[in-house]
Design brief:
Shape: elongated
CATH topology of the largest domain: Aminopeptidase
Structural class: alpha/beta
Distance between the termini: 30 Å
Helix content: 25-40%
Number of strands: 14
Largest sheet: 8 strands, mixed
Number of domains: 2
Strand order of the largest sheet: 1-2-4-3-5-14-6-13
Oligomer: single chain
Amino acid sequence: MNEFDLLRTCRRDLHRIPELDVDLPKTLAYVEARLAELKDACMILHPCKSTICALFEASHSDNHRTVAVRTDMDALPVTERTGAPYASQHEGRMHACGHDGHMAMALALCRWLAAHRNELSRNVMVAFQPAEETSGGARRLCKSGVFEQYGVDRIFGFHLWPDLPEGVIASRPGPLLASSNEVDVTFSGRSSHIATWQEGRDALRAATHFVGDVYERLERMASESVLSEGHVLLRFGTMGAGTVRNAIAATAEVHGSLRAERMADRADAMQVVKRAATAAASAQGCTTKVYFSEGNPPVTNDRHLFELAADTLPHLTRVKRPLLIAEDFAWYQQCLPGLFLLLGTGTGIPLHADTFDFDERVLQVGLDAYKRLVMLP
């Protein structure tokens, strides 16, 4: 099977069997079976739950340095509507974010590495990670100690990107993608009939005032350059309150997401949320609780790695400004230098859409880039 046929076959096979979080039995079995074909050329490691690493040792390396390549394996709870002949066979689950393509590139890279071990100046570890979309498989892999054990000193990763032209590779030094934190704000008051509303403590009114106020506070800080304008985003997507229409709501909740380019701006924005919630609650005689999930830090590319990549990938395009999408690849960059790159599909169909699809020819572009990146000194 030639290289492109392998890419297409792997991508479509995996597209048919999407699985979620760390519950990936069919996906793991497929990856294991493909790697078993290369068992004489690599060591297969299982450093943590639902994770596979393939280690290719350079034939003539005496420095024990290792470069890692990461791919994600999990899918999304989305019902596919592409109508493709290779569509999901698992109702309500779909590879709507391109992870099937990421895995196909990684598996094809493994076959290439097996055939070119005598040309490597470094060892290469290809990491197949679960739970990128959910519980943070990258962080667990970092904590496993496998990178320290095998001398990994840099890591690369790709993400398919519909908004870039087909086959274009893009990235930037420094901040590329945002941090992400879920935000839950609860207001607690006292219920009363609306006819005697003065006796109540209106949690719904506190919540509605809070949402408008916190937006205004962040916008004002951005305009005054207290925050980096455009680099912090807070939006609430759901609100719930009360039990009946003719009674003051005793409780109200709002749920949203916070994105920030820089950790300092994230911390400032979190303080703004807390102050606005306290002010809104106090004005209605209510109390409030604010919760932020741990989330992901921002994806921040190592500048030296970016310049090395730019030299070896002459058509690498620079992203003009950071994007407010989040990715758990950021956890790798907390423990070692890393470079995350975007690979254009040219389709414009949003990530996570139930019609997401792409031409597998772009995977060849990504694979060829991986070959160059793992050969960097």
